[in-house]
Write a structure and sequence with these properties.
The chain is α+β, with helices and mostly antiparallel strands. 34% of the residues lie in helices and 20% in strands.
């Protein structure tokens, strides 16, 4: 047996160890690629985050109610005011710089030029110019006689003096006091700076000296005082009603009156025209800022507030007068003022604005309704008053429902989350109590409703079935067709 021939083997070009490392790397790469593909697939199939709007609510005027109402809309997310992504801002007062800086990029709860209605001099000038047009009703149908005096040299002061002398002569036999109420023309609210006077020398001193102490007041609005107001248990009152203005996609103004949240504000003190009582604001002004400082505040009504229905029962008014005469009359005055100002409120046609206005009305002893003033940023505090604790949250919810939800609507139903779907259904079920009283198709309306005061000499005999109760009879003016009430 011979020796076996040994054939040398060729050394491997891929050592065993090296081959193992490459195999491990290849497997790892394959797994990594698989994970990436899976992640990509998950990313494509995963639902997108829900649509949200960022907002900021400024402090003041019971801002917690605004926050509570916005929390009912899960598609709104709170952010600070510096966030560049926020698309809605709620704040107490109109911010002129915000309009200049933000343009149309955000929605807000004020109109750019609301001063033509909410400043006392602005309201006077707006309505004076509007009513001067032929065929329109004069101002004295729905506002007390008014003048805007800035200096003793202007024409308004001359006109005021003539009116003062005229009323002094006409009212002398009736033993009237010829009272006038003087209000700072602007930069004034909550009764600040208001004076009641019936002496021309005193009024002249107020106009000539006090107006110059604060140039921001813009002079004085001198308005004939309603000396025979309708009273509740011998005390003055006014009615606070609400109107919401909303801009549409073309920047046009639409107005809505709220039907269920109007209320009566009462005085804590008996009404008096005695000279020693003229300086007592608590007698003549029913603003919360004045009345809550009175010792008898809340003694007669909780928070000095009454529901309209309760008020109608406590005054000597005809049956159904509240629904058929008073509310329609107030809404007609609202519509008239908005028609006068709608072109000036939003001249740049901004598309994402709305504003809640507070209209203050007074009634005289003959049930005539007068507009006293219009307020931006109407008080939303509830003052621990049970009536307001029910009305104001409802009002805020309705403001956002009609105002904000038109501008920033909820996501489409196909993209809603379950929580958002439930929120939308709840809002739709709740509805709102706003009624549209002015819009693009209602521009240049005519003030069809006649004053609600009874006529001393009825112009027509009552028709069958027009008895209103309480000694009042509903009559119709044969010339205008307008209804009014008169004593039998």
């Amino acid at each position: 047996m011979g020796d076996a021939k040994v054939v040398p083997t060729k050394p491997s070009t891929l050592p065993e160890v090296g081959f193992g490392r490459r195999k491990v790397a290849a497997v790892a790469a394959t797994k990594l690629l698989a994970r990436k593909k899976k992640a990509t697939l998950l990313h494509k199939t995963a639902p997108k985050p829900p649509l949200t709007y960022q907002y900021h609510v400024g402090k003041g005027n019971n801002s917690r109610l605004i926050l509570q109402a916005l929390r009912k809309r899960p598609w709104f997310v709170p952010k600070n005011d510096s966030s560049k992504q926020r698309v809605f801002v709620w704040e107490m007062y109109r911010n002129r710089k915000r309009f200049e800086r933000e343009k149309n990029r955000i929605a807000c709860n004020h109109l750019e030029h609301n001063t033509c209605l909410v400043n006392k001099d602005g309201l006077y000038r707006t309505m004076r110019a509007y009513c001067a047009t032929e065929g329109r009703e004069p101002m004295d149908q729905f506002m007390p006689l008014t003048f805007h005096v800035t200096t003793l040299e202007d024409e308004e002061w001359t006109s005021f003096k003539a009116a003062f002398v005229k009323h002094s002569t006409e009212e002398q036999e009736a033993r009237a006091t010829n009272l006038w109420i003087l209000k700072p023309a602007s930069m004034s609210n909550r009764g600040f700076g208001i004076r009641v006077a019936n002496d021309l020398a005193e009024i002249e001193a107020i106009v000539s000296t006090e107006a110059r102490k604060d140039a921001r007041c813009g002079g004085w609005v001198c308005q004939k005082y309603i000396e025979r107001p309708l009273l509740i248990d011998g005390r003055k009152f006014d009615i606070r009603a609400f109107c919401l203005l909303v801009t549409d996609r073309k920047g046009r103004i639409q107005a809505y009156a709220h039907r269920s949240c109007s209320y009566v504000r009462t005085s804590s003190t008996k009404y008096s025209l005695k000279p020693q009582d003229l300086a007592k604001k608590g007698v003549h002004l029913v603003n919360d800022g004045v009345q809550n400082k009175e010792e008898s505040y809340g003694k007669f009504e909780a928070g000095n507030k009454l529901a309209l229905a309760d008020f109608a029962q406590r005054v000597d008014a005809p049956a159904n007068w509240l629904e058929e005469t008073l509310i329609p009359r107030m809404e007609a005055i609202m519509r008239y003022t908005i028609d006068a100002a709608h072109a000036r409120l939003n001249p740049k046609k901004r598309q994402a604005c709305f504003e809640l206005l507070g209209f203050d009305f007074m009634l005289d002893a003959d049930l005539r309704v007068d507009l006293i003033e219009i307020n931006s940023n109407p008080c939303l505090e509830t003052w621990s008053c049970p009536l307001l604790e029910g009305l104001i949250p409802k009002l805020v919810d309705d403001v956002l429902r009609v105002g904000l939800d038109q501008i920033l609507p909820p996501p489409s139903k196909a993209k809603l989350t379950k929580r958002q779907t439930e929120a939308v259904e709840a809002l739709e079920a709740a509805g709102h109590d706003f009624t549209k009283i002015f819009g693009p198709s209602e521009e240049h309306v005519h003030f069809a409703e006649a004053p609600a005061e009874p006529a001393s000499e009825p112009t027509a005999e009552p028709s069958a079935g027009t008895a209103a109760g309480g000694g009042w009879v509903k009559r119709v003016d044969p010339d205008t067709g307008a209804a009014f009430f008169a004593k039998e």
